[in-house]
Amino acid sequence: MKKYFILLFALCLSTGIFAQEGFKFGIQGGIPLEDYNEAVSVVLGADFSYMYPLGEVVDVGPAVGYIHGFAETFQTTIIREEQEAVQFMPLSAGVRFWTSNYFSFGGNIGYAMGINDGNEGGLYYRPTVAYLMSSSVEVNFSYTGIDIEETTWSTVTLGIVYNFEPKYRTRR
C-alpha cells in the first residue's frame, strides 16, 4: 500500500509541474543486459522532469519515471515457466551539458523504488547522450543501471523527449 501511495504522490507532483516551463516528458524502449537478460524480454519507460538552466551550457533538475520490464517466457520440452514483470519508479536528479546547439550529454542519479513484489529497488543511475532534432523534440540513447542487492538491473534504451521550452532560451 505504501508503494501505491508514493506512486500517487509522484503522479500528483508531476501533474503540478506539467504547466511549468522547462518540463520534459520522455518515453523510451530498450533491451535488458547481463543479470536480467534471461528474465526480461523488452523494457519500456516514461520520464517526467523539470530541467532548470544554470546558464547556456548546463541544465539541472529533478525527475520521476516508470520502468517496466516485460517478463520473458521460458519454454522447454518439459516445463513452461512464466516470470513476473519487473517494475521500478526512479526518483532522481539530473544534469545535462550542451556541447553545441544540437548535442548534449549528462545523466541522472537517485533511487529506483521497486514496485513489483519482492523488488526492493536500489541506487539508480542513467548516463544519456541526446540529439536535439528541433526546439521541442530530442532523441536520446541511454544506459540504465539499478544496483539491487547482489545484482544489477542494466538496460540500453532509445528514447524520444518532448521539451516544453523555457521562454528565455532556445537551443536552436
UniProtKB/TrEMBL annotation:
Residues 1-19 form the signal peptide. It holds the Pfam family OMP_b-brl. InterPro entries: Beta-barrel_OMP (IPR027385), OMP/PagP_B-barrel (IPR011250). Residues 5-164 form the Outer membrane protein beta-barrel domain. It comes from the Bacteria. Keywords: Signal. This is Outer membrane protein beta-barrel domain-containing protein. It comes from Maribacter ulvicola.
